[in-house]
Task: structure prediction
Amino acid sequence: QVQLVESGGGLVQAGGSLSLSCAASGRIFSINVMGWYRQAPGKQRELVATITNTGHINYAHSVKGRFTISRDNAKTTVDLQMNSLKPEDTAVYYCNIDFIYSGNYWGQGTQVTVSS
Result:
């Protein structure tokens, strides 16, 4: 099985920065897409950023220019650098990995809280 563990969440003031990291363990092979999603109270889970196995990156409009997604293939990790944070960025952030042949996996989530 595959397990994803997120770290780096916390409390920060508006305008500050946080860096999230997701580490995968287990049977890791044939990765298609790695990404970050978030879910705020009372809202649906939404895409934040994704990066494909070829390096193509996609960002949600609301975070473009402020967040940066990156990956380390050797360590099988995906990171999210978040700058210029806003209160509306407050959410539980989830790591996701999609495999070409064997499905989709989620982390347990890490809380990010941005105060005004």
